[in-house]
Amino acid sequence: MTFKALVATQTGDAVSTSVIAMDEQDLMAGDVTVAVEYSTVNYKDALAVSGRGGIIKQFPLVPGIDLAGTVEASSYPGIAVGDKVVANSWGLSQTHHGGYAQKARLSGDWLVKIPTPFSTKDAMAIGTAGYTAMLSVLALEHGGLAPARGDILVTGASGGVGSVAIALLSGLGYRVVASTGRLEEGDYLRALGAAEVIDRRTLSEPSGPLGAERWAGAIDSVGSHTLANVLAQTQYRGVVAACGLAQGVDLPATVLPFILRNITLAGIDSVNAPQSIRLEAWSRLARDLDLEKLGRTTSVVGLADIPEVVARIFAGSVRGRTVVDVNA
Ligand code: NDP
């Protein structure tokens, strides 16, 4: 029995993709086989599919850092045939075939059972971006933040991490300020729960090491000057979760916000997060994420549409989350 997969191959430095038929012998080692229903296109998937950032470590490979589906076979304790499962990152799309195929075989260690009330499609509407947003919220809470402390800034607001972060934070009672380069998405951001929408250009240029104290906390998926300015504007004992690099990998900041304002900069890594943290994040998503808001963030495409979505991600024109229906 063959199944459909989008496969990335490399010729010289160029990476290209095509949708092909694979069979079970093409699958990699693992103790669980999953009939994949949905995957998604995150920023990291865009990097992988386009050959940027050295994400894929061996070719040919099925990209897709996320997948959700139904277990077809399992010798892994605690995971049974028929379970609905989700995998986020680990080696997917780096050294192991990922989610852009109708079938996957992988380690049971990488799987989380999808919590009620989520469907496999919801799990991919969340995907690594949404799970990273939840990890970021957990980091703010770990730093002691609560809604009464003041405004929380979300940068890269119209993107996947940003959209889910706004929905989560507003649901938890925070006053959320959304920073975006797309002010035309103001209605979308307010519908997710943003109380205020600001132009990202107010944060993206170099400025001084300390500014007026505006934010009790922030979730930043942008990095570079934006993160430096966010740190400079964070209130005494505030917390900033840094999870992304959409503007750049640099951080042209000083130590002054740390030693004069006692702020905390919390790093967020979704790829190698231990299973206990993943389980906590997924159970909090099940409790705190409004499914109606999640639906507003989501559009659905098929495997063959992925290269076009990738081009739109780099053009900055994808809003929210893109789910891939691998059976479409
Ligand atoms: P998206 O492409 O969906 O969103 C990124 C958003 O960043 C864009 O929508 C845009 O928002 C903003 N942006 C884009 N370019 C720039 C720029 N030059 N300057 C300022 N803002 C910009 O990506 P994701 O939400 O999937 O991921 C966001 C970031 O988080 C990425 O860098 C990704 O690599 C990282 N990430 C990290 C993870 C981790 O484990 N640490 C896991 C998941 C993601 P707007 O138009 O509203 O301004």
Question: Could you name the CATH topology of the largest domain?
Answer: Quinone Oxidoreductase, Chain A, domain 1
- SS element count, helices: 9
List the helices and strands in order: EEEHEEEEHEHEHEEHEHEHHEHE
Major β-sheet annotation: 7 strands, mixed
For CATH, the homologous superfamily of the largest domain is named as Medium-chain alcohol dehydrogenases, catalytic domain
Radius of gyration: 20 Å
Name the hetero compounds present. Answer: NADPH dihydro-nicotinamide-adenine-dinucleotide phosphate
> So, CATH architecture of the largest domain?
Alpha-Beta Complex
Backbone shape: globular
How many DSSP-defined strands?
Answer: 15
Terminus-to-terminus distance: 18 Å
Explain what the structure shows.
With 328 residues, the protein is of the alpha/beta class. It has two domains: 2-114 and 297-325, Medium-chain alcohol dehydrogenases, catalytic domain (Quinone Oxidoreductase, Chain A, domain 1), CATH 3.90.180.10; 128-267, Rossmann fold (3-Layer(aba) Sandwich), CATH 3.40.50.720. The protein has helices at residues 43-50, 120-142, 160-171, 186-192, 224-232, 256-261, 275-288, 291-297, 306-314, and strands at 2-11, 14-23, 32-40, 66-74, 84-88, 103-106, 111-113, 152-154, 176-180, 194-199, 215-220, 234-242, 264-267, 298-301, 321-325. The strands form three sheets. Strands 3, 4, 5, 6, 7, 14 and 15 form a seven-stranded mixed sheet that branches. A six-stranded parallel sheet has the order 10-9-8-11-12-13, with helices on both faces. Helix 1 packs across helix 9 (306-314), helix 2 (120-142) packs across helix 3 and helix 2 crosses helix 7. The longest helix has 23 residues, at 120-142. The structure holds NADPH dihydro-nicotinamide-adenine-dinucleotide phosphate (NDP). NADPH dihydro-nicotinamide-adenine-dinucleotide phosphate binds next to helix 1, helix 2 and helix 3.
